[in-house]
Fold Aminoglycoside phosphotransferase domain-containing protein.
Amino acid sequence: MSAAAPLEARVAAALARVPAWREAPPRFALAAAPVASPLHRGVASDCVRVEPEGGAPVFLKIRHPDMARDVVPWAAEAARKAASLGVGPRVVLDEDGLLGLDYLPEPWRYARLGDLQDPGVMAGILDAKKRLHADAPLGRRFCPFARLDALAAEAGAAGVVLPDGTERLVGVAGLIREAIRAAGLDLAFCHNDGVASNVMLDGAGVRLVDFDLAGDNDPWFDVGVLINEACAFEAEACAAVEHYAGRFEERLLNRCRLYGALDDLAWGLWGVTRAATSARTGIEFHKYGTWRLLHARTTLGARGFETWLRRL
């Protein structure tokens, strides 16, 4: 069903696709309003709380057709793996375009940027990511450079008018690709997501949600995009690297900085392209995209950029 249809109609049509709910449609309510800027939350799927009769509540994600290319085909498999490791909610439903998870009740809530700047919370998130990385690989490769290439190609095919200088930034990303390739990397099962709202907190623990981009990748990409989201000052970034690695090394921080810029660039292209191609014109895709591109431009134009490339 079109994303332009009313929410109630979209959810009812989705629930009717689940055999267990077809004859006794459960009650439902919006669980997360879609916001692209500044939260970047709930834009790939309608997120609803479903209350089956006699059953536990379910957090149901109903993917929008115009966002299908933004979700890896193995997202449910990745979410199940995270749940088995104790760092994600249990998957209770996996249908085409539908993903149901155990609903995390209060005091669970999604994290805000300010939460990530608390050293204890940041440490908990890094530990959760490290638990993913320590397990066996998923066997599904996620390459951030390939994603960037695909987004750039999509923008070109759609005739998207990009902010000035964006093509140059994409070219500079090629230097990062070559530097990482020369330095080498190990693959591990990664979340590949640094957005604050995809972390759930209850005051004592951490759960990771939204495995739409999960897959085997350099674990330092996970650390880098989280640092890029949360750390406004170098001292905070250094502390995060030290916590994850057990020591601080400049080359590790450099890798994180480069991955953060790459993530900014990819999400920037995503935002300005979705603003031109999505039917949901009420979501501020363009604002989010241009902000991420500005952040990428700032990092890639920093005086230390060439040094970071050389010291990986």
Remarks:
- Strands lie at 27-32, 45-51, 58-63, 91-95, 98-102, 109-110, 188-190, 199-201, 206-208, 215-217.
